[in-house]
User: What shape does this take?
Amino acid sequence: MRKATKRMLGLGVLAAAGYAVWRAFDARRVTSGVTWDPQPFPYPPVPREASTEATSWIEPDAGTCPASHPVKAKLSSGIFHVPGGANYERTLADRCYSTAEAAEADGLRAAKV
Assistant: This one.
């Protein structure tokens, strides 16, 4: 029993040291400004330059959107809701957009009326 405890303790110390080294190297890593677009299975990811534009959406606060970004979007369904829509009030947003056009440009579709 003692031998097993010592081995487990030793493995824990070794794992902690490895994690600390990994964190140190990760903190020093330089970002290149390149992102990767995933592709279907047999093809490798395609690199592209990361855009420096600000995103057209913001994170909601507890599912509600601020007045500056009133359009609510659900990513699981790919649908966005505009103010005054049938299900707008009961929708808990994943993202908030400033306009319906911005949501459509991000690949979402409008909710049915």
Remarks:
- The chain has a mean pLDDT of 86.
- The longest strand covers residues 34-37.
